[in-house]
């Protein structure tokens, strides 16, 4: 369970001794993700996507982001030909659910890999370094780290930053909401994100006893 303010996400990782068909006999492992929000994760009840018979575009986009982000920190050769699926279920949302899912998802992934190494199924650690994510934005003219929902909904600029524990960039999503932003403002948010991710990486390592 990762709790970032009032955003709470339950993250689990499941091991399977198989890979998608396009990776069969490749010797490469695979890490993927699924994401969902419970109906009362937000202020008013949302309809379950299952009742609509399909996932919404936002859900698909977020779970692809989580999968891409986590794979960036994995040596897929060392993982071997197996798949780890990370499930991220939002039980309470107050902004930054995709960032919390990535950060908590890595901890679940770390625990799953530790289990593989303990049993000797994997010899070399396939996790290169922690992967974490944080949101940043410009709210009321000021740069803000880890936007909550009211800040995010009114921010003039907001972005999501996915990085490794050593500050290497994996993915950046930034957009202006009714106002443009300068290169200097972008750099300021990047520096804020680096600070936030460093703190998250430290918390991740503490959570798994490293």
Helical fraction: 25-40%
Shape call = globular
Largest sheet: 4 strands, mixed
Strand order of the largest sheet: 1-2-4-3
Low-confidence sequence ranges: none
Q: Please state roughly what percent of the residues sit in beta strands, choosing from under 5%, 5-15%, 15-25%, 25-35%, 35-45% or over 45%.
A: 25-35%
Helix and strand run: EEEHHHEHEEHEEH
Termini gap? 18 Å
Oligomer: single chain
Radius of gyration: 18 Å
Number of helices: 6
Number of strands: 8
Catalytic activity: tRNA(n+1) + phosphate = tRNA(n) + a ribonucleoside 5'-diphosphate
Subunit structure: Homohexameric ring arranged as a trimer of dimers.
Family: Belongs to the RNase PH family.
Protein name: Ribonuclease PH
Describe this protein with a few key phrases:
four-stranded mixed sheet; four-stranded antiparallel sheet; 36% helix; globular
Structure description:
Helix 4 (97-118) packs parallel to helix 6 (183-207). The protein has helices at 49-52, 57-71, 76-79, 97-118, 149-154, 183-207, and strands at 2-4, 7-16, 30-37, 83-92, 131-139, 142-145, 157-164, 169-176. A four-stranded mixed beta sheet has the order 1-2-4-3. It has a four-stranded antiparallel beta sheet with strand order 6-5-7-8, with helices on both faces. It contains six helices and eight strands; from the N terminus they run βββαααβαββαββα. With 210 residues, the protein is of the alpha+beta class.
Quick synopsis:
With 210 residues, the chain is α+β, with helices and mostly antiparallel strands. Helix content is 36%, strand content 29%.
